[in-house]
Structures are given as C-alpha cells and as structure tokens.
Amino acid sequence: MAPQLETIPRIISMTNQVGGSGKSTSGVTIGAICAEWGYRTLVVDGDDQCDASVALGYMNPDAMEGQKTIYDCLANGAKLREAIVPAFAGPAGAAGSKRLANLDLVLGSGEMENAEQHLTTAMARELWLKRLLDQVKGEYDVVIIDCPGNLGLVVIGAILASDEVVACIKPGFKELRGLTRIEQKIALVEEQFGEFGAHAVLKGIIMVDVPTSRSQGAVWDDGKKMAVNSYGDLVLRGHTGEQIGVRRSTKIPESYAHQKVLPQYDRAGEATYDYIAIAKGLGFSKQR
Ligand SMILES: Nc1ncnc2c1ncn2[C@@H]1O[C@H](COP(=O)(O)OP(=O)(O)OP(=O)(O)O)[C@@H](O)[C@H]1O
Ligand SMILES: [Mg+2]
C-alpha cells in the first residue's frame, strides 16, 4: 500500500517523565520496524544517557572525533545533518555489523545533561528541536524522538516539534497516574505554542515489560483494566490482539547489550512480534 499523504511525514515523541519506562527500547524498535517496512526513518536521541545511540551502534558519541551530536546542534549552532549518522545492528563500522537500510540517527550526547541550563537562557528556547527538524524536512517519512525521563525543556521542545506523542509505561498504578501529567503537558504546549505550530496529540500508550506469568500478574491485571477503562484504544495491543503491550522478555536487555535492535537480535521473539503489532496499531504498514 502506498503511504497515505495525510499521515506522513510523522514526528513522534516517546515520552514519560518516569525513567526506565521503555521509551528508548520502544523508540528504536519501532524505528527499526518502520525502516524495514520502507519508511525513511530518523531516530533522534534526546537523552543524555544516549541509549538510543547505543542501541543503534554508537556506544560513546561524545568520543567520536570531529563528529557533531545533538548537543552541538542545540548549543553550538551545528546543522542537524552534521549530527546524523547511519544506524547499525552491532557496533557501528565493526566487522560483522550491519548497516540498517532506511534508518538514521541523530547522535545523542552526555552533554545533554546541560541542555536545560542552556535552554533556560536561550531565545525561543521551546522551539529548538522544531527548528532543527525543519532543516531535514522532506528527507524522512518518520521521525521518532527518544526523550529523557522528565517533562523539562528538552521534552517540551520535543512535544512542540511533534505530531504525536506516544507514552511508554511499565504496568502499575503509579505509572498509570503519571499519564495524566503527560496529557497536561501536551495540552499546555498546545495552549502556549499553538501559534508556533504546536499540535501534538497523544497517539498511543505502550505498556512494556508486561508480566507473562500469573504469579506476577495480579497488580498488572488491575492496572490493565484501569488503563483500558481510562484510555480505551489508545492502549496499544500486542501480538495476540487481546494482550496489551510488550511482553516481558530477556531478549530486550540482551539485544541492547549486543547493540542490536530487537528485530535484528530476536526476529521471531514474542516481544518483537508485540512491537510489530504496536507499529501497526500506530498506523504503520509495510510499504511497497
Ligand atoms: N518488554 C521488556 N522486557 C524486559 N525488559 C524490558 C522490556 N522493556 C524494557 N525493558 C527494560 O527496562 C529498562 C528500561 O527500558 P528503556 O531504557 O527502554 O526505558 P527508558 O524509558 O528509555 O528509560 P530512561 O528513562 O532511563 O531513558 C531497560 O533495562 C530495558 O531493557
Ligand atoms: Mg531512555
């Protein structure tokens, strides 16, 4: 099926103010699936932990001589294109690593921990990422922004630059309550920056690390009911169609340790299938 013009290009922020909620895993995995399906895909690593960069082949972006990162774009006037590198399964450039077709990365940087400080005094500080992404307009069908685990200025910039926000959460009552804050932030960004084009909507909720055994599952079952009651179809379904989210899988931390995106590391695994279903739930499909 040909891409539908009204749905691409799409800029999607993976958010949650809570750390360790599956943003990076979901961002790079969905990015890899989109790329495989033929979308020209860009993953933007907005987090100082650089997990998206590591997962796409770059263990230490700040140590790459002469290479610009997202921080150089934010703070030092570098062009976004200068921070874009090709994504790999396995360490970039190493023997046996594979260049992933259609998938590029805006390199993260440990210096992003200074981003808030820098942005606080910057002019039009909320627009930083939107302006950078405008530089590559038309070059990508899908842009996925991996956000840090807070709702600070970097994330506000990401929401402002996005068409859609996808919230990633681990199952639990506290985590569900956190969704309200994300919704409030999306509404606030639109209210304050609508005139600058802010229009993101909450497009989906991905539950990750979903327990698969019954003994682990009582709290999860309650959480699942609450999520579906409150958010209905926004809660994305996994492979079976009934089950919600991405099942717990040791392959996920393993694939990260090997610097291989999940579909490359565990092609026929449960979690891979769940992410394929979730990518479809977000409206992506294999392109001809
Ligand atoms: N389905 C899953 N099964 C098992 N482990 C998972 C699953 N999803 C995520 N994890 C693990 O949970 C941890 C957090 O995931 P991830 O790094 O994607 O979250 P994050 O929201 O990006 O975190 P941060 O806020 O620190 O950037 C990682 O160790 C990851 O391997
Ligand atoms: Mg992360």
Structural description of this entry:
With 288 residues, this protein is an alpha/beta fold. It has a single domain, classed as Rossmann fold. The protein is built from 11 helices and 7 strands. The chain has a 7-stranded mixed sheet, with helices on both faces. The longest helix has 21 residues. The N terminus is likely disordered. Bound molecules: adenosine-5'-triphosphate and magnesium ion.
Keywords:
288 residues, 11 helices, 7-stranded mixed β-sheet, alpha/beta, 15% strand, 7 strands, binds magnesium ion, binds adenosine-5'-triphosphate, Rossmann fold
CATH superfamily: P-loop containing nucleotide triphosphate hydrolases
CATH class: Alpha Beta
Helical percentage: 25-40%
- Structural class, by secondary structure, is alpha/beta
The protein's oligomeric status is single chain
| Helix and strand pattern | EHEHHEEHHEHEHEHHHH
Chemical compounds bound to the protein: adenosine-5'-triphosphate, magnesium ion
Overall number of domains: 1
What's a quick, concise take on this entry?
The protein is of the alpha/beta class and 288 residues long. Helix content is 37%, strand content 15%. It has one domain: P-loop containing nucleotide triphosphate hydrolases (Rossmann fold, 3-Layer(aba) Sandwich), CATH 3.40.50.300.
